[in-house]
Amino acid sequence: MAMRRPAGGHAQLKTVNARPQHLVFTSMNHRSVLSGLLIFLVAFAGQAAEMSSFKTSYTYKTVSGCPIQADVYRPNDRLIRPLILWIHGGALIFGRRDNIKTRQLERYLEAGFAVVSIDYRLAPETKLVDILQDVRDAYDWIRAKGPEGFYINPDRIAVVGHSAGGYLTLTSGYRLQPPPRALVSFYGYGDITGSWYSQPDPFYLKEPAVSKEKAFEVVGRKAVSEPSDEDHRWHFYLYCRQQGLWPKEVAGHDPASEPRAFDPFCPARNVTKDYPPTLLLHGDKDTDVPFEQSEQMAGELKRHGVEYEFIRIPEGPHGFDSRFDDPQVAHAFDRVIDFLTAHLK
């Protein structure tokens, strides 16, 4: 899940032409030559900085006429690198692969990782079982195509996700084979049947009520993975939270009458001793995903003897990591890099 998506702040790295710009000097005095040389050096330095990393987009899967894409970011070399599979949030209802924050992406690349940010089909047009299949197919595609296609080590992959992407990250700990080497969940959740999701939410009931008609007029029947109307899809999400219908609309099952149908979909019910090392980060003032969701997941990891870390962000809201200038957030992200480095390198 995620709160309304803020504008801007997303990754903008692009593939660039590696040839430096050539400047021609004619009939210039020494000052002009020096000035021109300075312009050349500045232009080349700026271009060299851009050339240090690049992005390439791929279609990793097409289903029901819906192409599903992945963006590969990596340093501009051919070194075999460990990989971060990054999964966006958005309640599984909205969001896109380019929601990755630029500064965080830069930190991953500076630490020596390649990054693949994926789209997946969105609910309610696509139900949860097929969304989870998209994540599995993306992982299989990376392992099969990554070594030669974008120079990654298929045996050194971590999964990182935020909110609903954090939830999908936690499901990857028992659904992907071979398991990822590590998981990092930013304010994710391990149980999608709790009252926080299956009952009207007090926080969202403070918002103007969304009618069923308004909610369903912004979603359709055709599969979608790159929504162009995210602000409108937000209304469907708000309706689900106000009515306590998210599990039913996203998973296609009613937790009140079919509680066991959710067993395969709840990470907290699927932790074993073989679950990957996991880092959980959560703000204790999160009004969207309860802090208790990460506490519950930490308890299950501890009970099964799984290596884990749990970082509590005091007074942290949902999406606390948007405040990258906050020393507390910056320190937490340092720990993320340390955790990934320890398990991938």
Record the strand order, biggest sheet. Answer: 1-2-4-3-5-6-7-8
SSE run: HEEEHEHEHEHHHHHEHEH
CATH architecture of the largest domain: 3-Layer(aba) Sandwich
List the uncertain runs. Answer: 1-10, 12-34, 37-51
CATH class label of the largest domain:
Alpha Beta
CATH topology grouping of the largest domain: Rossmann fold
Gyration radius, in Å: 22 Å
Counted by DSSP, the helix tally is 11
Distance between the termini: 30 Å
SSE topology:
Layout: H1 30-51, E1 53-63, E2 66-75, E3 81-87, H2 102-110, E4 114-118, H3 128-149, E5 152-162, H4 164-175, E6 182-186, H5 195-198, H6 202-205, H7 212-216, H8 230-243, H9 246-251, E7 278-283, H10 291-303, E8 308-313, H11 327-344
Parallel strand pairs: 3-4, 3-5, 5-6, 6-7, 7-8
Antiparallel strand pairs: 1-2, 2-4
Architecture overview:
By secondary structure, the protein is of the alpha/beta class. The chain folds into 2 domains: 13-51; 54-344, Rossmann fold (3-Layer(aba) Sandwich), CATH 3.40.50. 37% of the residues lie in helices and 18% in strands. It has 11 helices and 8 strands. It has helices spanning 30-51, 102-110, 128-149, 164-175, 195-198, 202-205, 212-216, 230-243, 246-251, 291-303, 327-344; strands at 53-63, 66-75, 81-87, 114-118, 152-162, 182-186, 278-283, 308-313. Strands 1-2-4-3-5-6-7-8 form an 8-stranded mixed sheet, with helices on both faces. Strand 5 (152-162), helix 4 (164-175) and strand 6 form a beta-alpha-beta unit. The model is unreliable at 1-10, 12-34 and 37-51 (pLDDT under 50).
